[in-house]
Amino acid sequence: MGVKLVVAARAESKFAEFCQQNAFDLHLFSFRNSLDFRTAFGLKKLIARLKPDLIHVHSSKSHGIIALTSLLGFYTPVILSRRVDFKLKSSGFSNWKYNIPQIKRILCVSDEIRDIVRKDIKDPNRAQTVYSGVDLSRFSDVSQNHYLKHRYKLDDEAVLVGNTSALADHKDYFTFIDTAARFLQQHDQKIFFFIIGDGPMKEEIQQYIASRSLTSNI
User: Fold this and answer.
1) What is the Cα–Cα distance from 35 to 212, expressed in whole angstroms?
2) pTM score of the predicted model
3) 78: CATH
4) How many domains does the chain have?
5) I want to staple 72 with a disulfide (CB 3.0 to 4.6 A). Which of 43, 44, 163, 174 is the partner?
6) pLDDT by residue (tens digit) across 25-63?
7) Residues sharing a CB contact under 8 Å with residue 99, sequence separation 6 or more, in sequence order
8) What are the tens digits of pLDDT across the range 163-184?
9) Is residue 218 part of a domain?
């Protein structure tokens, strides 16, 4: 599309490794936390040298750092992506970093997140919904060969329900498990539920599944 991409990423991260493998124009920084002044100074030098038309900020940590960088002086428009449905923090730093003039749009992956963000920013119209998307055609071979059914030796007529996300508290997997239990009580057909992901609550979720006697169906 004629767009030149330059990536600033955390050193020794999976993302940086991906960019190196795919020959992106990559610049590595520490990105230790939202107040990493060393990274902020490095980004300021990079912005001054490359003079980009647009900066896309993908995480809370990089959001804080780009806000610090703004104090050093740059006027490149910034687009911020927000994917979590937490209420914005009420601290002075949080209020400031969401309202720096460089941020022209906040891209929210759902209307719910957009409405949460709009409550705490000075110009609510800057928060817009842009859904995350996946090119399903990339997985056409997998969907047609019934990979999961074959791997787990399930009948062809079985119904599969999946949930793919981090195994963390805010994903509320317990409601997913309770819902699975209700479905299995109410329907005679063979239904199997897949939890695809990893995270700090993996063991607790597995124990909850066992406590509901759902191990053979989840």
Assistant:
1) 44
2) 0.76
3) 3.40.50.2000
4) 2
5) 44
6) 999 999 999 999 999 999 999 999 999 999 999 999 999
7) 121, 122, 123
8) 999 999 989 999 999 999 999 9
9) no
